Amino acid sequence: MDHVPGLSSAVLDDEENGRETCSSLMDDAFGDLAALPVEPEERRPTCLRCRRPQKVCLCPFLPPQPLEVSTCLYVVQHPAEESRVLRTVPLLAACLPQGKCNVIVGRRFSEEKHPELAAVCRDSKTLILYPGPKSQNLEELVQYKEVGTVKHNVIIIDGTWSQAKNMFLKNSLLHLPKQVQLNRTLSSQYVIRTQPSNICLSTLECAAVALSILECNDEIQEVLLRPLKALCSFQLQHGAQIHHSKEHLLKNGMYDKPMPKNKRKIKRMEKLITDHNICPR
Predict the structure, then answer these.
(1) Fewest CB atoms less than 10 Å from the CB: which of 6, 26, 220, 251?
(2) How much is the average pLDDT of 238-245?
(3) Torsion over CA of 18, 19, 20 and 26, rounded to 10 degrees?
């Protein structure tokens, strides 16, 4: 401690002793708290099939038996999706046989760390569902038999649109498969989460449409969307609000957040109003 003129050494010693005593008492108090047994956090019982809390289980809306499909899905999932409460991938997996919906979590994927994904990406029967100038219409490829009737692998990137774009651009493995997109006119039923535009779909919806096209069975789409509709209906009945797309909010003057200052983001938002090819139909 620095010497202060006008204070005797006795006063300084008393002050120092007082601080040590106070520090000792604090250590004892926190030591006692640390010794208390920690009660484990109580979690609501979870349904093993739909992965929802048992009180809001969606199994009545799932097919009695997993859908028989020849197509194998590979969901490349951004790590942030794991912590989201209202996810659609667990519902998708619950509707399909084991091994037909494989989830691979991560941001970056290499042949060394992800040999299974690398092998799938190099397989000529693999398609990746991602819109872009190089992307082909999946329905037309099936119609004109350009993808054949063999068993396909379909890769779907699961995350927000900005996360999905970043994952696609920064993973060269994802550029190997034939790139396809959906051109069916379908408004998203996932109304409890904000989408960039009116034609953007959730991961489950993309999978439902793709499977119905590849398997030539429109009933697949209806069966897969049933639990999603039930999830949204339940949430809306218990206080959730309908989330309009950013495109809808901007077009109708309802966007109440501050406009971005970044020029790229401003152009992106302008595109939502004028460009209908941002997301796959």
Answers:
(1) 6
(2) 65
(3) 110
